[in-house]
Design goal:
Radius of gyration: 14 Å
CATH architecture: Orthogonal Bundle
Distance between the termini: 25 Å
CATH topology: Arc Repressor Mutant, subunit A
Number of domains: 1
Order of helices and strands: HHEEHEEH
Largest sheet: 2 strands, antiparallel
Helix content: 25-40%
CATH class: Mainly Alpha
């Protein structure tokens, strides 16, 4: 995967980072850490080899959806793969696959955050309001 030019600090992560993290955690639990390309927001200009070909053909052009951060802020030219790169940068997960065939594992730090996130969601709260403790 290409590297995000400047990682967005965890304190600024919002709905898209945390929902992507939760998705990756479920893929680690149930599918050996292999994400489905069609479930990941992908900007083909940033991560051309990670775009699901079925979606690329159906779009007839590249739709852009910015990453939603805290306080309603957004980050343009940033997709779910960019979020995953930042998760790796901050030590929550590791890509043990390749750049075009990622396979994720959660680190011990990542497992701790995943447990906090699950508890947060079980309490009826949303991804956007999640703030991990002790990292």
């Amino acid at each position: 995967m290409s590297k995000t030019p400047r990682p967005i600090p965890i304190e600024m992560w919002g709905k898209d980072h945390w929902s992507t993290f939760a998705y990756i955690e479920t893929r680690c639990v149930d599918h050996k850490g292999i994400p489905e390309l069609c479930r990941m927001r992908c900007d083909s200009k940033i991560h051309p080899m990670l775009q699901d070909s079925r979606i690329a053909m159906a779009n007839f052009g590249d739709k852009k959806y910015p990453t939603i951060l805290k306080h309603g802020m957004t980050e343009e030219s940033h997709d779910d793969w960019s979020c995953a790169e930042e998760m790796e940068h901050f030590g929550l997960l590791e890509n043990v696959g390749t750049g075009i065939h990622p396979i994720f594992v959660l680190t011990e730090k990542g497992k701790n955050v995943a447990a906090q996130l699950r508890s947060h969601k079980m309490d009826g709260k949303n991804f956007a309001s999640f703030e991990p403790k002790g990292i």
